[in-house]
Design brief:
By secondary structure, the protein is mainly alpha-helical. The protein folds into two domains: 35 residues; 58 residues, no CATH class.
Length: 117
């Protein structure tokens, strides 16, 4: 959760550019030191947080819609059903993803099902 404002971060960056130390600017403007450092060194582009989606925006949107719909009608999906749905979608659409032959999903599914009590 972000507890600082964009304006505070911009002020802290400006203060550092004008000679203030990063540590002092972070304290003065109440922003995280490492986040300030990352912004100054342009470690990330824009306001994007986290890594890019692995399944693709379309697949993730469809998955969210399905999960919410099933929950709304009182039929929440189990984790194994979500994983199977993702696998089915990737196989059927041939969508490129970073899961080599969907092995990641199969490994997670195997771990999940073998650890069931």
């Amino acid at each position: 959760m972000v507890n600082w404002t964009k304006e505070n971060m911009e002020s802290a960056i400006e203060a550092v550019q004008n000679g203030m130390s990063q540590r002092k600017a972070a304290f003065t403007f109440d922003v995280p030191l490492m986040t300030l450092n990352d912004k100054i060194n342009k470690k990330y582009d824009g306001d994007q947080v986290g890594s890019p989606t692995r399944l693709g925006t379309k697949c993730e949107a469809l998955l969210v819609t399905l999960i919410l719909f099933m929950s709304d009608i009182g039929m929440a999906l189990k984790k194994s059903q979500v994983l199977e749905t993702i696998k089915y979608y990737l196989v059927e659409t041939g969508e490129t993803n970073w899961f080599e032959n969907n092995k990641f999903i199969l490994i997670i599914y195997f771990i999940y099902t073998s650890n069931k009590v």
